[in-house]
């Protein structure tokens, strides 16, 4: 639509001019305040005089700018109007206060030589009768005329004025009072200013009244206009202010209701309601303005003579004279066009769309007659000269009028009438163009036609965005109205007949059904494509010699066409259509449009972009089997790929085009085949790397080959020969000539079984069904393939044949074995092309499984292969390999239970039940039942108990040897469990293979049969240990010398060993291994032990429940008395079973060791030690002395307080309470004399000792130790046995 003047296509609404608010330029330059206009709350109306003055001094946005912003915010400038049900709307322009509107037309008498004496005499500067006008002398309507009424001549003018108020440049002092004399002067100035303002308004009103323009005034009142002694509510009833406003209105001659408005300060913050009400009140005046204009134009038209009158015919020139080339004055028909167009425009301004359509249609029909060779309206008048200035203007006016009619019909919801006008316009100018020689054979016609559909699509798209709804064709017959001509006349005339026959379905004329904009964008794009072709043909024609240049368009037209990028324009239109169809969710059409876009890119030489489109489109057409369309796309893609030099794509497209799914002739298919072979084997392509590899996924294209795979069995065993077949079938028409492949690759999920079958280049006649033996392959190292199974076979394929390749494999391990891919390929010096069939995803088929059996004749040649039916349906691309049932028995013999720390022998017997001799290997592992880290386990298995190095909890790859069929072999292993007495599981695995076919690969991989057995072994501890440590007499707790800082302590260790083994145990030695101390100044030594004293301990047999006690006297030397925890060492017992197990009668098993950690020596943390020496064998009635020895281990003296508690068993002499001081590193002895009174076990008088410091609360109780006695706890004390006086 940009090629048409906007004045001819924009929607017209009444024009309002505002005066006194500045211009749009002032509004653009005005900085916007951050908080907008100030709004007054309801409570602000009751403010006092002080608050009013303070608010007036606050700077804010001028009200004029806010008003102007609201008035111009919704300017109706666009293709589509505000809607039929919208509120009153104006197009608002702001002019200067002193702006002068154009005067009325001047009045002049018509020239004497005019042929139309009744023609109006008032001429506009842009009238054809005015010299210098752009349409003088025979033009129709210039765009400037429409612009004049859209932008210059308003229908309503609103002036905004401020009521004058005296104001001093200095701030008003509230304490000052105005004298009566000053008040009188101010009143006289108010009247004078009001009179001047009223006269100014009156002059403006009179000048506009002459043109019939409605004028209204708006009085803007300021805060200063309010009396300081009243609030705004009182101001509204102020008599003086009301008199001033009434005076201005009366003098200016304005109507109080529709021409004079007052805007008080209370509304300055919210102008929206005021602006809306203002436009509503003036809207009818605006419509009346254009209504009066229409009446004036209608009167002028009525005064025009009839164009068919003879005295108004344009006289032809004499035959003897040449026709005059000077322009002739505008004829009656031209004036009729002008007046009809003006009537339509004014009707549109006043929003009378039906009348506007009627007048536009009249003007359109009159304009169409101007293009005819002979006018049918004005007899004798000839048509406009082709390509002349007026001819071009008339055609542009006809286009825009037609567009107006279409748009206004859509505006009033009459879509069929809009479409009818489009069809009428296109059909009319098609006939006109063909008659004038600029028809369908010229690019000009197609350029024009493409434009018509594009602008119609643009208008329709804008209408839809604005709320217009395209009617549903299925509902049109039920919603037909008289205002919507949705049916042709024939269909309308037959409606009564159809309605009388209920069995007859109602019909609808498809050409009269309005489509969405995408359809018209598509038509515009197609016509633009034809435009390009016609122009290219014209260029070719112009390059020829001796052409007739008279039939060529003007040079400026050719130059303009040459500058247009036709392809870009066509792609733009297709893209717009694509987006519209996409919103309609029409997938087929969007794909078609995408292909048209790709073709346009192809024609424009943008091959890369075109190829991307083609590839994306081809996926859907390929998936949905639209082979005819796909063939075209592939051929176009082939052209793009060749131009781009992407030969991989060329090869792929040629391979797909070989499929007979495409309806092409055999000769074309041979040409495709030959071109493919030439590229691969003959063509020398520049810039091609040494070897270009292409993998074509045949499952993603239309393939001339089908591939089917079958495993003969559903399952197989490891090491068993497993058969499979691969069947290739060619189509009935492809390949057109024999096609010989270079190789056939079979890819398994285990690369060990991959096959590489090479062509043997044998020339022989092919049969419809051929069985090829691919068994007995040899392994070779092929470059690019690695170590692979290889065989030479026939890979020559003719059309309509089936080749079945049968091979075999031997699974080497359990699991699913799948044939994942099959590739037929060509291998040349420059190319490696693979036709890849992906078999990972099995296709669902319901046909019976078949197996082809090849029958060999006497010469070992395959003849007449036949099919046999297998169980199941569909393909079998994978097979499950399982371990063959092992016929080997593993037995274990041992003497339970096992003891911890012993070499526990287990006799393993492996029995061979196979028919062949077998080669066997053994793996064994001992695992504790509780999950733990087996790597940290101290358990181990060994074959030799005398060797304890490099042992672990498992044995690997133990060669058992060859076991003859039906015989067995015995192997003894030794298991040693440590620490935990939890049960263990012995995992045994025997791998074996027949000696006739021992696999070359190591077990447990391919070819080895596996036999597993698990045995549980219960362990018990052979011994239980308990320990007791006691400190000896205080004489040991001494220094080695007076100057020595070492402290010596003596302890007595008692180890109690209880036998828990159910079998007899031979103990050969018991030893205490002392641990080294972390500090070199701390030492522990064994002074003596019961083992050393007992010279007879050379080996003892312990039975279950036997208890053996070992005593050790330990001497501890240390300097750091703060060291509390002392490690002692390990108690080690060397032993073995007294009786050999029946498993190893003749094998001598060495002794083993059981080790237990002796608990730590826990020393008491004390700076003061107190020891009591109790005499032996006290008697009743005999005095004995208790000696308490206190040792101070620190360098500072300590104060000791003693308290003795009396009991009934003893009488003692001395102080019950006493205290003494023990010097640093010194000793003190404290004695208590006791006299026993009662015999038996008696508690000694309790002595409480505590160390006291310098401060209260710094007391510490001292524990008293009696060597050989149990340590006292809390209230307990030492108990001794007192002998009676007379022994019994």
Keywords:
1288 residues, Immunoglobulin-like, 9-stranded mixed β-sheet, alpha+beta
Secondary-structure map with pairings?
Layout: H1 6-9, E1 15-19, H2 24-29, H3 49-56, H4 63-73, E2 91-95, H5 143-152, E3 156-162, H6 180-209, E4 214-220, H7 232-235, H8 239-252, E5 260-263, H9 272-302, H10 332-349, H11 353-370, H12 389-411, H13 415-436, H14 443-465, H15 473-476, H16 489-493, H17 495-500, H18 517-542, H19 555-562, H20 566-583, H21 587-603, H22 607-623, H23 627-644, H24 647-657, H25 666-682, E6 692-697, E7 705-711, E8 715-717, E9 722-730, E10 739-740, E11 743-748, E12 755-759, E13 769-773, E14 778-782, E15 786-793, E16 796-797, E17 802-809, E18 815-827, E19 831-838, E20 848-856, E21 862-873, E22 878-882, E23 888-893, E24 898-899, E25 904-912, E26 918-928, E27 940-942, E28 954-963, E29 968-976, E30 984-994, E31 1009-1017, E32 1019-1020, E33 1023-1031, E34 1047-1059, E35 1065-1074, E36 1083-1089, H26 1090-1093, E37 1100-1102, E38 1107-1118, E39 1125-1126, E40 1129-1137, E41 1152-1157, E42 1161-1162, E43 1168-1173, E44 1184-1192, E45 1198-1204, E46 1210-1213, E47 1217-1222, E48 1227-1236, E49 1240-1243, E50 1247-1252, E51 1259-1262, E52 1264-1265, E53 1279-1282
Parallel strand pairs: 1-2, 1-3, 3-4, 4-5, 6-19, 8-22, 12-15, 13-17, 24-32, 43-52
Antiparallel strand pairs: 7-9, 9-17, 10-16, 11-12, 11-18, 14-15, 18-19, 18-22, 20-21, 23-25, 25-29, 26-28, 26-30, 27-29, 30-31, 33-34, 34-38, 35-37, 35-40, 36-38, 39-42, 40-41, 43-44, 44-48, 45-47, 45-50, 46-48, 49-53, 50-51
Helix pairs in contact: 6-8, 9-10, 10-11, 11-12, 12-13, 12-14, 13-14, 14-18, 18-20, 20-21, 21-22, 22-23, 23-24, 24-25
